[in-house]
Write a structure and sequence with these properties.
By secondary structure, the chain is mainly α. Helix content is about 55%, strand content about 5%.
């Protein structure tokens, strides 16, 4: 076993493990304790299956059809049928990393020993992940209740050797062919196993975990871009003093203020060049950046608590309890995850909004305190960054639409048996789009602020060492500095990649020390 192997045990998993498997192809291995727990819970299910009394998911139909008792000879067909019938997704394919997170998190629950799945089924799930086989999962098919049913069903279909999947080379082929090519025997599902593979919050949880990873990078990046904008606007860093934030002790606010203060350390621009247009206070988008960024940080921390609880959970219905009971429950309801997914979309939209307001201020000659209109080289002949702000504004507007909560909606299903659902999958899908958009918004502010800082430096003013490091790294990444108009999209794309890959944070930390 090496450092790239994630061991799946009986007590949940970590966010880092999810990201390692989903994004970085870490191998998966079942612990001895997990194999033992799987075998023990399976003995309980087998004993119940042999009794005449109906047990949901073992010897009955599903959902609104649970009243029918299924005879022994039809139970294998019952488990195959639930997978085939529930694999009813439609629309575009879901991203590979989301599907891998989905499969890994279902394996995590299966390995808990609370689902009654046989060890060999769990091992096949690990084998499929390790082979780099990714089931084809579609955008639509989950209401975030009774689990992410259609997405998980498409994954279970691959375990059966049916449907389509993507191989490690990126080619989509029949799943049976891919399993055979990697020496994996398709599973033949027995009592409860089909249901256990479908009934979890794994898709929405996987997307939450990855969004938290991305948003932590973006919030630190936005602290840096806010500092750069403050500097370019000749603002004052006095509002970042720790004693001011200590008297309103929201943790994230203090962290963001400290990040900004460290980026601005040693600046020759801040607070010293306002004689031509005296300002008692900077505009809200500059002065209140720690308050807005910090509130978002606190929201991330709350969402991480919810994600941690869910990562420690075994979500299935019914569940096998340590005392041998198999009990129905409602733990598959995605409300806890759905709420924080929506909350994150709200704070991401507000962060994008304040970034755009600072960008617009940098470009407006009436509010930029001496910068050229639109940061253009020869304003009138050149348009500078005028339309870059249009693009940013369009993204902000989209973010506001994405901030409308999905979890406030519910639509009845399964003949009114499942009459209240979370819509958590939908909340997760729109959050992924919001995170992508926010990355672009932060990148546009970075591009504008670094250009403005360079223009100040050309006037003989000395930017902070951290600002100089950010400018140099961005230029080295292919986003060019001030000058006559040119094809701008490649520069913005370079800035987007720079932020997305965490390179902005990496560029300034050798100067500032580690930023939170």
């Amino acid at each position: 076993m090496d450092m790239h192997t994630v061991v799946v045990g009986t007590s949940g998993t970590t966010a880092d493990d999810v990201v390692a498997v989903a994004r970085h192809g870490a191998r998966v291995e079942l612990s001895t304790a997990a194999v033992d727990a799987l075998a023990a819970s399976r003995l309980i299910v087998d004993a119940l299956a042999a009794k005449p009394e109906p047990v949901y998911g073992v010897s009955t139909g599903f959902g609104a059809l649970a009243s029918r008792h299924i005879s022994t000879e039809l139970r294998a067909q019952l488990q195959r049928n639930i997978v085939r019938s529930h694999a009813a997704g439609m629309g575009p394919r879901v991203e590979r990393e989301v599907v891998r997170a989905l499969m890994f998190l279902r394996l995590k629950t299966v390995a808990s020993g609370h689902t009654g799945v046989r060890p060999e089924v769990a091992q096949t799930m690990a084998d499929v992940l390790n082979a780099g086989i990714t089931p084809v999962v579609h955008e639509y098919g989950s209401l975030g209740c009774s689990g992410d049913l259609a997405p998980l069903s498409h994954c279970a279909l691959t375990l059966m050797g049916e449907g389509e999947a993507e191989g490690p080379d990126g080619t989509v082929r029949p799943a049976g062919e891919l399993l055979a090519a990697h020496g994996i025997t398709p599973v033949e599902l027995r009592e409860k196993e089909g249901l256990a593979l479908l009934n979890g919050t794994d898709g929405m949880l996987g997307m939450l975990v990855m969004a938290l990873t991305d948003l932590r990078n973006l919030y630190t990046s936005a602290d840096i871009t806010a500092a750069l904008s403050l500097e370019a606007l000749l603002g004052t860093e006095k509002v970042l003093a720790p004693e001011l934030h200590a008297i309103r002790p929201h943790p994230g606010q203090g962290v963001s203020a400290d990040n900004m203060l460290r980026v601005l350390a040693g600046s020759g621009l801040t607070g010293h060049h306002q004689d031509d247009a005296p300002r008692v206070q900077d505009a809200y988008s500059v002065r209140c950046a720690p308050q807005v960024n910090g509130a978002g940080r606190d929201t991330l921390d709350y969402a991480a608590v919810v994600a941690g609880r869910e990562l420690a959970s075994a979500v299935d219905n019914p569940v096998v309890l340590p005392d041998g009971r198999v009990e129905s429950n409602g733990n598959f309801h995605g409300a806890p995850v759905a709420y924080v997914l929506d909350f994150l979309a709200i704070v991401a939209a507000d962060l994008g909004s304040i970034c755009e307001r600072r960008t617009d201020r940098l470009l407006d000659k009436h509010r930029s305190h001496g910068l050229p209109p639109f940061l253009a080289d020869d304003a009138g002949v050149d348009s500078g960054l005028m339309i870059a702000q249009y693009t940013q504004a369009a993204l902000v507007s989209e973010m506001k639409r994405l901030a409308v909560p999905a979890s406030a909606d519910s639509i009845p299903s399964s003949a009114m048996q499942e009459d209240h659902v979370s819509m958590g999958w939908s909340a997760a899908r729109k959050l992924r789009t919001a995170v992508d958009n926010l990355t672009r918004i932060v990148a546009v502010e970075l591009y504008a602020a670094t250009r403005a800082v360079e223009l100040r430096a050309a006037e003989g003013l000395v930017p902070a060492p951290a600002s100089q490091a950010a400018v140099a790294a961005l230029r080295a990444a292919g986003a060019e500095g001030p000058g006559p108009d040119r094809f701008l999209a490649p520069d913005l794309a370079a800035a987007d990649t720079f932020v997305r890959e965490g390179r902005l944070v990496a560029a300034v930390e050798p100067v500032t020390g580690p930023l939170a």
